[in-house]
């Protein structure tokens, strides 16, 4: 399935502000020096940001590349329409993340949006797709995911079994000029394609009423600004892309 | 520095971000680990991007 615009039922608008929910990508696959992550010891911590929006994070100081929160942050909007997720974290954390979501809502996970291609954001794609989620991303992200990770990297992040799984690929994609708006429960969600910055397929997700924007690795609170030139990222884009987060 | 012919190694060695490195979490981590974006990686990548446009 490929579509460029999706609309569901109407909902109100809210005031926007930036809440940095930076997610980290630490695996530069061109360097192929993958960290060892003790997935079994990672627990998922749920933080409620608004009445219907939650951030899920892994235990701190367990993932070398995400000192503050293993696997970065997963955004979860819940309501009568179901669950809307942003980013899928590492594959080995999918069951724990799903369990944490079930504690929030018994509703099905209907959508999973990837902010970009890196495996700490997309590793869980096939697992959540099998749970029924429609995976959405930039076309550039799908194109990148179509290229399996180097085996050593995939193994190091617990992704080896899913490295060639077709369910890892987003089934709904958009391009840089597309504007996608979801009306999901009482929320308006805008998918905002960004000029090449962290990668060439970055997507910000703005929840209007919740007053939350998830910006992937466009900004990180660990290290200097991270551009992945091997996947089309540019510092010029980081500068130009600031307007998307305002 | 690029315009004056400095190499990437010379620009990285100049430690242009030294005043900020201790204020950026992970800023001083060595490159090989690939964890976070160290000062060297940041400056090196920036050099590459700007040098391409010369």
Which SSEs are present, and which pair or pack?
The complex is a heterodimer of chains A (246) and B (54).
Chain A: E1 44-48, E2 53-58, E3 70-79, E4 82-86, H1 94-104, E5 109-113, H2 119-122, H3 125-130, E6 134-138, H4 139-145, H5 151-156, E7 172-174, E8 180-184, E9 187-193, E10 203-207, E11 212-214, H6 235-240
Parallel strand pairs in A: 4-5, 5-6, 6-7
Antiparallel strand pairs in A: 1-2, 2-3, 3-4, 8-9, 9-10, 10-11
Chain B: H1 8-13, H2 18-21, H3 39-52
Report on this structure:
The complex is a heterodimer of chains A (about 250) and B (about 55). By secondary structure, chain A is of the alpha/beta class. Chain A has one domain (about 40-245): Metallo-beta-lactamase, Chain A, CATH 3.60.15.10. Helices cover about 15% and strands about 25% of the residues of chain A. Chain A contains six helices and eleven strands. Chain A has helices spanning about 95-105, 120, 125-130, 140-145, 150-155, 235-240, and strands spanning about 45-50, 55-60, 70-80, 80-85, 110-115, 135-140, 170-175, 180-185, 185-195, 205, 210-215. In chain A, the strands form two sheets. Chain A has a seven-stranded mixed β-sheet. Chain A is globular. With about 55 residues, chain B is an all-alpha fold. Chain B has one domain. Helix content of chain B is about 45%, strand content about 0%. The mean pLDDT of chain B is about 85. Classes of the chains: A alpha/beta (about 250), B mainly alpha (about 55). Chains A and B meet through loops of A and helix 3 of B.
């Amino acid at each position: 399935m490929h579509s460029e615009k999706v609309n569901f039922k109407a909902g109100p608008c809210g005031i926007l502000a930036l809440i940095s929910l930076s997610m980290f990508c630490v695996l530069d696959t061109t360097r192929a020096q993958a960290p060892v992550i003790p997935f079994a010891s990672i627990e998922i911590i749920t933080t409620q940001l608004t009445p219907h929006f939650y951030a899920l994070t892994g235990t701190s100081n367990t993932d070398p590349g995400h000192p503050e929160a293993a696997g970065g942050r997963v955004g979860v909007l819940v309501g009568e329409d179901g669950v809307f997720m942003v980013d899928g974290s590492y594959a080995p954390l999918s069951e724990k993340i799903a369990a944490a979501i079930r504690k929030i809502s018994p509703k099905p996970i209907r959508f999973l949006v990837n902010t970009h291609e890196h495996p700490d954001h997309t590793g869980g794609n096939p697992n959540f797709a099998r749970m029924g989620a429609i995976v959405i991303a930039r076309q550039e992200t799908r194109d990148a995911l179509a290229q399996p990770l180097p085996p050593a990297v995939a193994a190091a992040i617990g992704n080896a079994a899913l490295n060639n799984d077709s369910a890892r690929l987003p089934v709904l994609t958009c391009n840089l000029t597309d504007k996608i708006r979801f009306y999901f429960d009482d929320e308006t969600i805008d998918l905002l394609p960004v000029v090449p910055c962290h990668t060439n397929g970055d997507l910000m997700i703005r929840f209007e009423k919740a007053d939350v924007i998830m910006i992937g690795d466009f900004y990180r609170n660990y290290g200097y600004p991270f551009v992945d030139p091997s996947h089309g990222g540019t510092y010029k884009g980081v500068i130009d892309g600031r307007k998307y987060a305002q | 520095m690029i315009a004056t012919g400095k190499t990437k190694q010379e620009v990285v060695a100049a430690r242009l971000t030294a005043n900020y490195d201790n204020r950026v979490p992970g800023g001083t981590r060595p490159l090989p680990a690939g964890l976070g974006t160290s000062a060297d990686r940041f400056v090196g990548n920036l050099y590459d991007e700007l040098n391409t446009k010369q």
